[in-house]
Design a protein that fits this description.
Layout lengths: L1 H6 L6 H11 L12 E4 L4 E4 L10 E6 L6 H7 L4 H5 L4 H9 L4 H6 L6 H7 L1 H12 L4 E4 L6 E5 L2 H15 L4 E6 L5
Antiparallel strand pairs: 1-2, 3-5, 3-6, 4-5
């Protein structure tokens, strides 16, 4: 949406883009942000945040194992996981607080995704990938959205490359993977 709006000379104002994004899906407005943000309610209420100091030197290892997981299915399954469904009040604020600190380990320990519970139950490979990454130096792992993409937080670029090489040695080179910096480069 942003790219098309730019391509056509910016005919839509930011408010119009936001309204259009919300009509496409509850979580679509989040992706109009060029910075981190806290999404609440159904995902349509967006509070922009500053970049997180905890990611200053950190890198992410992204892994897509080659299959998708329906978001509708994942939400339907949450009823079987009451702790995940009901969440913990203040969890997002505690995560944001740890991300604004300088320690990526405390931030990685606070990662949480309620949709992970049904996904790893149905697809044990995801739990296996995450456990492997944690046992090989990842300081945090998490499923992205309803999955199946998952990511690991590494302390440095060298640690991320080492983690990815170990992953490829164990699981082969059939998954899509990438290494990205924790913060955008200036």
């Amino acid at each position: 949406m942003l790219g098309l709006n730019d391509l056509f000379g910016g005919p839509l104002a930011p408010g119009q883009l936001l309204t259009l994004a919300a009509s496409l899906g509850s979580d679509v407005p989040f992706f109009l942000q060029d910075k981190p943000a806290l999404a609440t309610s159904r995902g349509e209420k967006i509070q922009p945040l500053d970049f997180f100091p905890a990611f200053q030197d950190a890198y992410f290892v992204l892994i897509y194992p080659g299959f998708g997981i329906s978001t509708a299915w994942a939400y339907q399954q949450l009823a079987r996981f009451p702790a995940a469904l009901n969440g913990q009040p203040g969890r997002a604020e505690r995560l944001i607080s740890s991300l604004h600190g300088a320690d990526p380990r405390s931030a990685g320990a606070a990662f949480y995704n309620s949709l992970e519970a049904p996904a790893v139950e149905k697809y044990p490979l995801l739990a296996l990938l995450q456990e492997f990454m944690r046992s090989h130096g990842a300081i945090g792992t998490l499923l992205s959205g309803s999955g199946s993409s998952t990511f690991a937080l590494a302390q440095s670029q060298a640690a991320a490359h080492h983690l990815l090489e170990n992953l490829k040695q164990k699981f082969g080179d059939t998954y899509w993977t990438a290494i990205v910096p924790g913060l955008p480069k200036p």
